[in-house]
Amino acid sequence: MKKLGLEMHQKNLCPREELCLQFGSIYGQNWGVAYPDSICALKGSSVTMSCSYTYPNDNTVERTFWTKGDGYDPPDLSEDPGYKGRVHYLGDKQSDCTMQLIHVTQTDSRMYRFRFITDKDKWLGQPGVQLSVTDLQVETPERVKEGETVTLKCRTTCSLSNTPTFIWYKNGHDLTRKNMKNNELSLQSVSSEDRGSYMCAVQGHENLPSPAVTLTVIYPPKKTTVSVSPSGEIVEGSSVTLTCSSDANAPQINYTWYKDSVTLPVGYGQSYIINNIQSSNSGLYYCEAQNKHGSQRTTAVPITLKGMETVTDVVI
């Protein structure tokens, strides 16, 4: 911590500010305030500004307070309506001027100074402590392909004091992983199991997490199946609808329908409808779901009219 301070002292000793600036190092050699140059605090947390001060032995301290002002007679921070009930002076009237500010907000980001008044003079520690307030934000790619490695970062707008330990959550559950480093979470060879909502927090401030960010994993169609409606016996002349379903997290899936061992498609789209079904429509049907990342075919589904035997000798 640096010992800092320059004050417009009693008017009879320092009538003009330029004289204070000129003779401050001489006149103020026994006067001073020491505190850190800057502090970075997490939004919503409490911050303690450590502070100490010195003055000539023949002075008696009568009043101490912190201020966000820098004029000749700055106001007491604890009396400011925006800080009411949030400022706690932890020091004394001897040498400790530590101050605690609770429930910090973004608007608290500014310079703070310690002021003390003795029976003979007054002093304002300059330039003061610069408080920066940050929240947490998760940085992640909007989409990631299955099999790739992705790194999620817990970002702050300033470097938090006291070297924090970051914690990660997925879908509200604490993640315990070996591949966490500083403010980063690394997901190796991602799969559909890694998709979800991610948040980060600072240990000790778990109640102040970042907003949730969704990680989307893009992968080829999986678990592709065919359903038949109606599901009971199929009567000649009726209508049958085959529907293809697939688990694929991609903007567009194309469906293609095939019958028996014929390589040419018989239809396109998620549903394939056979109207006025005849014996010639009997056979094994399957669909292929495809996106730009890959494709998957279903197992064959037999379509047999009532009274006809199921076709079993087709190899796909």
From TrEMBL:
Give the domain of life: Eukaryota
Instruction: Give the transmembrane ranges.
Output: none
Under PROSITE patterns, the record lists: IG_LIKE
Q: Which residues form the Ig-like domain?
A: 127-216, 221-304
Fill in the subunit field for this protein: Predominantly monomer of isoform CD22-beta. Also found as heterodimer of isoform CD22-beta and a shorter isoform. Interacts with PTPN6/SHP-1, LYN, SYK, PIK3R1/PIK3R2 and PLCG1 upon phosphorylation. Interacts with GRB2, INPP5D and SHC1 upon phosphorylation. May form a complex with INPP5D/SHIP, GRB2 and SHC1.
| Protein purpose | Most highly expressed siglec (sialic acid-binding immunoglobulin-like lectin) on B-cells that plays a role in various aspects of B-cell biology including differentiation, antigen presentation, and trafficking to bone marrow. Binds to alpha 2,6-linked sialic acid residues of surface molecules such as CD22 itself, CD45 and IgM in a cis configuration. Can also bind to ligands on other cells as an adhesion molecule in a trans configuration.
The name under which this protein is listed is B-cell receptor CD22
What gene name is listed for this protein?
LOC115815893
